[in-house]
Specification:
mainly alpha, flat
């Protein structure tokens, strides 16, 4: 029995022209598909590699055509952190992105739940208003909003004009969550109500645990938007360097070090790194949430 098991298995090679042609075609298709995948991966990855390698070069080498650092200058990152105000920009960005994401999710979930599961007069009109708000460019309302926050409430030079509106819902987040909640069968909601759960308890105990992928996708979208937002800090916080975020502070940093490309690239890496890490660890929930938002409409 052992001899039989140890005997090598003979694979019969294709002998007919049709089998050889089919095998050759499958091999060429595999090479074509994976070649395109590798090319696409390189297309998106090489710019990040270039930025990272440049951030580790010396001042003189960063202005040359060299692609690989002669000496790995890790001290460039320490120089960036030692820049006055850089840690303050980090703190402000974390407050803006973190608090804004929490407020957006908390305020958008109940509205999306009502539009997805409640039956009331004017529901379609309310949904159309949400969609119409998605089509409205922020530049249209920037002047009256600035006058309101700066002149009426005297909040210019702070992050609050950008954070407070997130507590009143976001049109894109509401629409995305509504589409995801439509995929949850109504039988679960009806069963919870039969057991005596009210609307709020049904939302908290039944719907939210099933909607985690959609909520994760919305939270990541909002976090990325706030982390990379340049327009809002430029409008409301430009007059106060203590309220600058990383996106706006990076522009000032580039102006101060316009010839020090190694330091500019090091600052760019430090700005991009948290977003890349967050997406790397949450990509499964993000992809699942985005994929399931369009199943039912």
């Amino acid at each position: 029995m052992a001899q039989v098991l140890d005997r090598p298995v003979e694979v019969k090679a294709p002998t007919s022209p049709a089998e050889r042609t089919a095998r050759r075609r499958a091999l060429l298709e595999w090479i074509a598909v994976h070649s395109l995948g590798v090319a696409a991966a390189l297309f998106f990855t090489l710019p990040f590699v270039f930025v990272f390698l440049t951030s580790l070069m010396s001042d003189s080498q960063a202005l040359s055509r060299d692609l690989i650092p002669h000496t790995w200058e890790w001290a460039n990152y320490k120089k960036v952190f030692d820049t006055p105000g850089f840690l303050t920009w980090w703190k402000n960005t974390l407050i803006y992105a973190g608090l804004g994401t929490v407020l957006t999710v908390v305020s958008s979930v109940p509205v999306a739940y009502a539009l997805a599961k409640f039956r009331f007069r004017g529901r379609n009109l309310a949904l159309m208003l949400v969609i119409s708000m998605m089509m409205l460019p922020p530049q249209v309302v920037v002047i009256p909003m600035y006058l309101f926050w700066a002149k009426q409430l005297d909040l210019s030079g702070t992050l609050w004009p950008m954070i407070i509106p997130m507590g009143f819902g976001d049109a894109f987040s509401i629409f995305l969550l509504r589409q995801f909640l439509m995929t949850i069968p109504n039988e679960y909601v009806d069963a919870a109500k039969v057991d005596g759960c009210g609307d709020l308890r049904t939302l908290l105990k039944v719907v939210l645990p099933m909607a985690r992928p959609g909520i994760a996708a919305v939270a990541l979208f909002q976090f990325f938007y706030a982390w990379n937002d340049y327009f809002g800090p430029q409008i409301y916080a430009s007059e106060n360097p203590g309220a600058w975020t990383l996106s706006y502070g990076l522009e000032s940093f580039k102006g101060m070090h316009h010839t020090d490309w190694n330091l500019t690239m090091a600052a760019t890496v430090l700005v991009m790194a948290p977003v890349i890490l967050v997406f790397f660890f949450a990509q499964k929930a993000f992809v699942e949430g985005v994929t399931l938002t369009g199943v039912k409409g």
